[in-house]
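Supplementary notes for students who missed Thursday's class. We covered one full example, reproduced here. Read the sequence, then the structure, then the short commentary at the end.
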Amino acid sequence: MNDDKFFEIISILLEERDEVYDYVSWIREILNRI
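Structure (token representation):
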């Protein structure tokens, strides 16, 4: 993976950080139940 693509992904994640945070919280909740 080249750096440009990496930074592009990071930018998208930052722009959508609220959704990403919700997703991470959901994943953690699932893992805690295992």
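Commentary. The helical segments are 3-15, 17-33. Residues 9 and 15 are 10 Å apart (CA to CA). If anything here is unclear, bring it to office hours.
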